[in-house]
Every structure is written in structure tokens, then in C-alpha cells.
Amino acid sequence: MRTQVGIVGAGPAGLLLSHMLHLRGIESVILESRSRAAIEATIRAGVLEQGTVDLMTEIGAGERMKREGFVHHGFEIRFQNRSHRINLHDLANGRTITVYAQHEVLKDLIELRLATGGQILFEARAEGLEDVTSDRPRIRFTTKEGAAEELICDFVAGCDGSYGVCRKAIPEGTVRQDYFRTYPAGWFGILAKAPPSSHELIYTHHERGFALISTRSPNVQRMYFQCDPNDKVANWSDDRIWAELHARVSGDGFRLKEGEIFQKNIVPLRSFVAEPMQHGRLFLAGDAAHSVPPTGAKGLNLAAADAHVLARAIGAYYSANATDLLEAYTATALRRVWRGQWFSWYMTQLLHRFPDAGAFDLKRQLAELELVTSSRAAATMIAENYVGLPLS
Ligand code: DHB
Q: Start and end of every FAD-binding domain (predicted)?
């Protein structure tokens, strides 16, 4: 099998890239190890930066998002049982965020890709890459039927997430350096059939640990609370979950609305960057090259930005035989990635209580929370980073 750009992974980076290449007249094939149903049912984050919303709209994938997503003009930071509003719209030049779940984004992109003749091979598992430093790289893969095949391409886009095979094709130590940090915390996430408790997201600092009140629709709410990363979902009955959430977010007249919990999961908090993001004709995008702790919801948005930069660079290669944007890919993408890393770390350390933190750290956090909710300059810094950098 042969194509111009072989894409490993039908996540946000792979699907966006494939469609942006299509709009430039460039052919691609996506290999995805999971089934379409599994991808479309996996619960992830749900906050789209202004730039991601604009990109989805521009490429013709924004219709349902515009109809069903929720535009938020601000969010709340809550500490010592009181909420303080960060007015995104006002502080970030009219820019806002949109709450629209990642799997809805994926559903829209898959549908659009298939409707425009895109090739996505579901349940096709990439086994490894060959000859990525030649001009004829190959992806070895196993088809849904179990046959061993090869996809021969001009370029390989590694969009296969943190645990994919693509990053491994960049030799660690000699060419590739990994930057890694773990946090002694996880997020326990739930989906509940309940009315919204607030019309904006609430990021809560509490001595018992962080909590986040988010939403999905008028009838479904998304909530998270900081937990031990090694904890098990089975340890948390519905009653225990509600008691913990109430303990962290109640007070000052605010009362969380309960409902039937129909989904529970635990995600670890970690920061990771692999440099460079390119090796020969292999380009990494999204979680294959970097992951962020969820605080601030940067993961999907960084993946979308990588895809945008890469599509433009590959586009310039095919339209003008220009290689300068391809050569600049790592540097261009990493500027945003490290800003996202910093902001995700910043929000994480500001809002979580870590087991090794003492009384000093608590007082320091409260002083900083006071600062970011009372100084327009400090709140502007948060707002600008939260809505995201414009896509250049
Ligand atoms: C959600 C996830 C996040 O990581 C975040 O910072 C805000 C919202 C969400 O899933 O709704």
C-alpha cells in the first residue's frame, strides 16, 4: 500500500492533519489500532481553546460544535470556600473557550474525513517504522484481519499517543531526549446525569485537594477531584464521591447538584516532552511527543496546533518543494508545547495539595491565589494562557 503521508493514530492530531492535508490536495492514510466505536466512546477532556475552535470551523468541521458546544466567557477559581471569577473575554481581548467533549470532536472529524474520501483503517495496528531517514519510509502494520502489511509513504506522521510505536523510531539518548515529571496525584473523574451547578467551570483549591466542576450538557455534568494516583475506581462508592466533592466545593451559599453517576475513571498527572519532534521523514504530533497534566485542558489543543503547523509544512513541500517549514517543525511546535507545559504545571501546582507539601506551601498557594484573583495583571496572565495562543 502506498500514500503520500502515512498517519499513525486517529486521535485529534491524526484526524485534523489528514483533513488539512486533504484540503491542500495531499493524500494520506490513517492507521488506527482501535475500532471506530471505541474511539467515539472514550471519555476525555472537553475544553477547546479559541484557536482550536477557529481551526475546526475553518476546515469545515465546526458545524455541530457551534450548535452543541458551550461558549464560556470566564471561569471561577475557588479557594477558602469562595469563588473568584476570571473574566476571559474581558482579559483576553474577546477570546473565549468552548466546552465540547473530545470524543464529539473525534466523531465530527471521522465523519467528515470519511465523507470526503479519507482513508482510515480502523483496528489496523502499527507494529513499527522502517527507513524513516530515507525518502521512502514505511509503516509495518497488522490489518483487522490479522495480515502483516506495509504502508509506504513520503512522510510519516506519528500521532499515536503516549504509548505508540512512532516515538520509539527516534533513537533515545543519541538523537532524542525525553523530559519527564510525575506528580503525586491523579484525577478521579465522573460523569453524572444532573443539572449544572454553575454556568461556568470552577477550579477549586481545598486543603483536602483540588476539585473541578465542569459540564457536558444541560443534563450531564463532568466533575473531577484530586486522588491518590494509585487509587482504584472500585474504592469509591457514589456516596463517598459526593461526600468528597461536597467537602471540597461547598460553602458561601454554593451547593453542588447531585445525580446518577454513570462513568468513573482515574487519570495520572504527568508532564512529558520528547525532543526533537522530527527524525528524518518522521514527524511526531500530539501526545506521541508530549503530554501535560490535565489542569487547564491543554492536551487536545496542543495536538491541534501541532497538526496545523505540520499540515502547513507538508503543504509547502508539495506545493513549492520548500523544506524550510519542515526543518523548522520541531522548533515551531516546541515553542507552544513548552508554553503549554509551563501553564499546565503552573495551574497544577497552584491548585493541588501534594502529600509532600507542608504548611509553608499552603500559605504560599493561598497568597498566590489571592494574587491571581485580585491583580488584573496576574489574572490577565492566566486568562491569556487559558484561552491559548493564537495559531500562527
Ligand atoms: C475539563 C478537563 C480539564 O482538564 C479542564 O482543565 C477543564 C475541563 C473537562 O473535562 O471538562
A: 2-339
Indicate the top mutation candidate among 212, 343, 352 to test ligand 1's pocket, ranked by most ligand atoms within 8 A of CB. 212
* 330-389 pLDDT per residue, tens: 999 999 999 999 999 999 999 999 999 999 999 999 999 999 999 999 999 999 999 999
Average pLDDT over residues 164-170: 97
User: Does ligand 1 come within 6 angstroms of the Cβ of 61?
Assistant: no
pLDDT band, very low/low/confident/very high, at 135 (cuts 50, 70, 90): very high
318-352 as b/e: b if 16+ CB within 10 A: beeeeeebbeebbebbbebbeebbebbbbbbbbbb
Query: Rounded to an integer, what distance in angstroms lies between the CA atom of residue 248 and that of residue 246?
Result: 5
CATH architecture of 5-72+97-179+270-347: 3-Layer(bba) Sandwich (3.50)
Tell me the C-alpha distance between 76 and 55, whole Å. Answer: 26
Output the pLDDT for position 220.
Answer: 96
CA-to-CA separations, 69 to 45, 75, 259, in angstroms, rounded: 13, 16, 22
Q: Does this model's pTM top 0.90?
A: yes
> Catalytic residue among 22, 298, 308, 352, which?
298
- Candidates 42, 44, 47: which one to mutate for ligand 1, based on the most atoms within 8 Å of Cβ? 47
Domain segments of the chain as ranges:
5-72+97-179+270-347, 183-269+353-387
- Is the pLDDT assigned to residue 392 strictly greater than 80? no
**Whether the domain at 5-72+97-179+270-347 and the domain at 183-269+353-387 fall into the same CATH topology:** no
Is 298 noted as a catalytic residue in this protein?
yes
Question: In this prediction, what percent of the chain has a pLDDT beyond 70?
Answer: 100
- The closest of 28, 30, 31, 32 to 5, measured between CA atoms, is 28
